[in-house]
Design goal:
The protein is of the alpha/beta class and about 220 residues long. It has helices at about 25-35, 65-70, 90-100, 110-120, 135-145, 150-165, 180-195, 200-215, and strands spanning about 15, 40, 45, 60, 75-80, 85-90, 105, 125-130, 170-175. The mean pLDDT is about 95. The structure holds guanosine-5'-monophosphate.
Length: about 220
């Protein structure tokens, strides 16, 4: 639905941020399932792998030393320390996807978002996902049950810090209902794809249209 046949466009860097447990991961998964033109940016991290996670699919799990080498050799578009671990976005896959006219989805925190905005404001669209309430956020983290009680307590503390940056984002989704939030997220993507500045050959298309109309008027 978002694509206009015959009009090529620049890829969008779609950034999703939220505290853990606000529903961002499910929104991300749904978007990747339903939008063939969207590729996920797979981050590198020094965090321990959770049982359900696969190296190379959910994250590139790296040692601190390996991460530092990536960071120091300029392989990362952005990086940050989150919850005591390092996370970063490998540059090459993003540049490749954008060059292929694909959109790239980033699940990164406010620190990484700031860095992408500083470097590539024109290409970046930012969305912040808020939980409907503090109680609901806590319940969702507990239901996930993959993390220990102390990790959950730490994440709740960090949620307030992450949420305090909501005003730095272009769009806000209050995630009461996943289907509603997903429909809104797709609407954002569709509208952003239709922006004039995103279209690569719209000028020649419009020029041709005007030239043809002129001929008709003669
Ligand atoms: P988790 O450990 O729960 O998977 O992720 C913790 C936080 O790190 C999330 O808020 C997530 O968005 C953020 N994060 C994941 N990958 C990156 C990354 O590459 N860069 C930055 N800046 N944050 C990331």
């Amino acid at each position: 639905m978002g694509e206009q046949p015959g009009i090529s466009r620049r890829g969008i860097m779609l950034v999703l941020s939220s505290p853990s447990g606000a529903g961002k991961t499910t929104l991300t998964r749904n978007l990747l399932d339903q939008e063939q033109k969207v590729a996920l940016s797979i981050s590198a991290t020094t965090r321990t792998r959770r049982p359900s996670e696969i190296d190379g699919v959910h994250y590139l799990f790296r040692t601190k030393r390996q991460f530092e080498v990536m960071r120091d050799s300029g392989e990362l578009l952005e990086w940050a320390e989150v919850h005591g671990n390092f996370y970063g976005t490998p540059r090459e896959p993003v540049e490749k996807a954008l060059a292929d006219g694909r959109d790239v989805l980033f699940d990164i925190d406010w620190q990484g978002t700031r860095q992408l905005l500083d470097k590539m404001r024109e290409d970046v669209v930012t969305v912040f996902v808020l939980p409907p309430s503090a109680d609901e956020l806590k319940a969702r983290l507990e239901r996930r049950a993959e993390d220990s009680a102390s990790v959950i307590a730490h994440r709740l503390q960090n949620a307030a810090e992450e949420i305090s940056h909501w005003q730095e984002y272009d769009y806000i989704l209050v995630n009461r209902d996943l289907d509603d939030s997903f429909a809104r997220l797709r609407a954002i993507l569709t509208a952003e794809r239709l922006k004039r500045v995103k279209m690569l050959d719209i000028e020649s298309f419009a020029d041709r249209l005007l030239a043809d109309l002129k001929k008709m008027a003669i």
